[in-house]
Amino acid sequence: MSRLNYHHLYYFWQVAKQGNLTRTAELLHISQSALSSQIKQLEQSMEVTLFHREGRKLLLTDSGYQTLKYAEDIFSRGAELEHLLMQGLQPEHSPIRIGVLSTMSRNFIESFIAPLLTMPDARYTLLSMDQPALLNALAQHQLDLALTNIIVQGHDNQLWQCRLLARQPVSIIGPAGIEAAQSLNQGYQRQRWVLPPSQSPIRTAFDALAAQFQLQPEVVAEADDMAMLRLLVRDSGALTVMPEVVVKDELKNGRLQKYLTLPQVYENFYIVTTQRELLHPKLNLLLQAFTM
């Protein structure tokens, strides 16, 4: 008989994800001592050490990392089976659950789900959250896919299937009628700017170009949410940098204007799924329609 106790493995999996014994015990509604004892039994039965301590932190050993990868697969497959059985083995009739990064362009999201808007039998759920919450919801099989502009990286990336969905050139956008040059030079020196925060890839690329052209932009506001950035540039009279898709309606009606496409600067959009046996049937439909 196998020495592996899956109940103990589940407790290890939860602690490894949380990285904290006390917080995990609270989430699982058991005592910390009982939780610690369960993990110790797992280590003893398998003759391995899964964690080592650094102060109050629990860090995975090499064996712990390997065990976590298998635990992720075991329990995510279990969640997939549970969802499949609860849906009556007819996933094509269930809503497709799409998670979106909360700061992404809503226009881009709408363009991706456009096929669903015209399908009478389509049922879908859109959930907005930050990147860690997106990945956690995917791992727990609470989502069928996630849309993000942040690439998935890290030691657990074998769990994810992250692929580039689209890349959009980034342009200088502002109110119509501003006197601006066709190159990023001193013609932009006197302008006011509303920009993404300094840690964003778009801002990093813009700052590098500004340094190259000795431009010192007067930054009057920053926002990491594309919807808010869109409102700020529309109502403040300042310039910004963003993909045209974010403000396609304002560009069409003339309220905003594109002044310059930044050379070799793009915003990347990714689709993230988990490695699972059964994918929602409408996922391939969305991908095929979007790339046509």
Automatic annotation (TrEMBL):
<feature type="domain" description="HTH lysR-type">
    <location>
        <begin position="4"/>
        <end position="61"/>
    </location>
</feature>
<comment type="similarity">
    <text>Belongs to the LysR transcriptional regulatory family.</text>
</comment>
<dbReference type="InterPro" id="IPR036388">
    <property type="entry name" value="WH-like_DNA-bd_sf"/>
</dbReference>
<dbReference type="InterPro" id="IPR036390">
    <property type="entry name" value="WH_DNA-bd_sf"/>
</dbReference>
<dbReference type="InterPro" id="IPR005119">
    <property type="entry name" value="LysR_subst-bd"/>
</dbReference>
<keyword id="KW-0238">DNA-binding</keyword>
<dbReference type="Pfam" id="PF00126">
    <property type="entry name" value="HTH_1"/>
</dbReference>
<keyword id="KW-0804">Transcription</keyword>
<protein>
    <submittedName>
        <fullName>LysR family transcriptional regulator</fullName>
    </submittedName>
</protein>
<keyword id="KW-0805">Transcription regulation</keyword>
<dbReference type="InterPro" id="IPR000847">
    <property type="entry name" value="LysR_HTH_N"/>
</dbReference>
<dbReference type="Pfam" id="PF03466">
    <property type="entry name" value="LysR_substrate"/>
</dbReference>
